Amino acid sequence: MSSPEFEQEQSRKLADIGAELRRAREQQGKSLEDIAAKTLIQQRMLKAIEAGKLEQLPEPVYVKGFIRRYADALALNGTKLADLFPVSAAFAPSKEQLKAQPPIAVDSLRPVHLWLLYVVVIIAAVSGLSYYLSRDPNPSDSAPSVSTPEPSEVEAPPPPEPTPPPPVQEAPVEVVLTFNEDSWAAFTLDGRADFEGIVSAGETRTLTGQTQIEVVVGNAGGVLAAVNNQAAAPMGSAGTIAELVATPP
């Protein structure tokens, strides 16, 4: 646990860093909404960083990552500025602390693969309805009413060709994440925010996209990533923040 003196030092450094970020943002004519859309960080947390409100932010290791992403969005040296924020070397959040931390919610969006599934179901339904309507509901209505031909003279109509189901298009980009430890994570699929929050140990997340998948995790050593069916590998060292950008092979 950090001492009161260390927490005061963190608050002071955060206030200095936040003031510098706010000045740079205002000089560039950018709003907090612009920064939130680019970094996937909620506006209330960006406001807390600018105001130096450490008590309104998550664990310091995540704050350090937020500072770097905020600075990078302003074309500043994010790594250098984030290094000014002190993080206790003894910090090692327990599973209870991680689970108690409220998830960082983003706008609810459906994954791309669900939309592809919806399209396939709709196409299959339309194809089945077309086949049903194309069949003659009452073949006897077309037979002559005066005389009935012999069974041998009646030519059986050829059976309708079955409509093949539409092929399921595989997503060009796929990332499979295996969480061996609890970790904060944020996913962006084809430029749209998909998830941001805490993922528990033992969970597996499969992400699919058409052009690009971006992944940011707060405990890189506890997360394995497999990109486009390649062998899974840790995203980084334990307790560090790591980013991954996957594109079609």
Automatic annotation (TrEMBL):
TM helices/strands, residue ranges: 114-133
Keywords: Membrane, Transmembrane, Transmembrane helix
PROSITE patterns: HTH_CROC1
Any one Gene Ontology molecular-function term assigned to this protein's record: DNA binding
Domain HTH cro/C1-type: 21-53
UniProt KW Membrane keyword: yes
Disordered, as annotated region: 137-169
Keyword set includes Transmembrane: yes
Compositional bias of kind Low complexity: 142-155
Pro residues: bias regions: 156-169
A family per Pfam: HTH_25
Signal peptide interval: none
UniProt protein name: DUF4115 domain-containing protein
Organism: Petrachloros mirabilis ULC683
